[in-house]
Amino acid sequence: MHISIMTGKLEGLRAISTNTATNPFCVRQNTCGDENNICTKCYSHTMLRSYRKNMQPALQRNSDLLAARLLSSSEIPFIADAFLRVNAHGELINETHLANIVQVAKVNAHCRVALWTKRKDIVNKYFRENPKPDNLVLIFSNSRINNIMAQPPQYFNKTFNNVAEDLFIDQQNCTGQKCRDCMLCYSENNTTTIVEKVKKY
């Protein structure tokens, strides 16, 4: 399993990601033509088509590994970090993918594993029948721009929302800092609604 060392906003964190460019859900959302869908402005698609093309093989290996079968405990990596990001690139592929991330959280109970996803369908189906580890933070990534979702869906801890730079300014709480200097998404706190301005790539 490839664990990426992140840069930019995510500098100082590591992440388990998959290949956005081959995920049918991501491709469909990215090409839907709806300008109010944040996926049409996806940084990952932009990066993986251009200056980060060389990342695709490692991310594809993760896609293939995580979505194909349930991994044994011995195949799950030990994470020597306090926090881990899931889906810095990519999205949940299927229920097996989610089950393997749950295994990562279980094996690494000392680490807060934060997973961003739009796939409520996969999350709902899985957690109706399986317990959610206490150290797994589920963040619902709202696809609609300028439509802040305050209440997290069932099983989710927080919502992540995108807005135009000049709108909802007083509610923007994820703009202008690196994650490691904020940690609002990763730490235990009372903030359940994260709002970021739409970035231009």
Give a description of the structure.
The protein is of the alpha/beta class. It has one domain. Helix content is 24%, strand content 16%. It has 5 helices and 7 strands; from the N terminus they run ββαααβαβαβββ. It has helices at 24-30, 43-49, 56-68, 95-107, 120-127; strands spanning 4-5, 14-16, 83-86, 112-117, 136-141, 158-163, 193-197. Strands 1-2-3-4-5-6-7 form a 7-stranded mixed beta sheet, with helices on one face. Helix 3 crosses helix 4 (95-107). The longest helix is centred in the N-terminal third of the chain and has 13 residues, at 56-68. The two termini are 28 Å apart. The mean pLDDT is 95.
Quick recap:
Helices cover about 25% and strands about 15% of the residues. It is an alpha/beta fold.
Proportion of strand residues = 15-25%
Question: Strands across the major sheet, in which order?
Answer: 1-2-3-4-5-6-7
Distance between the termini: 28 Å
Number of strands: 7
Average pLDDT reading: 95
List the uncertain runs. none
| Helical fraction | 10-25%
What is the tally of helical segments?
A: 5
Shape: globular
Q: H/E element string?
A: EEHHHEHEHEEE
Largest sheet: 7 strands, mixed
What structural class do helix, strand and pairing data support? alpha/beta
Radius of gyration, whole Å? 16 Å
Query: Domains counted in the coordinates: how many?
Result: 1
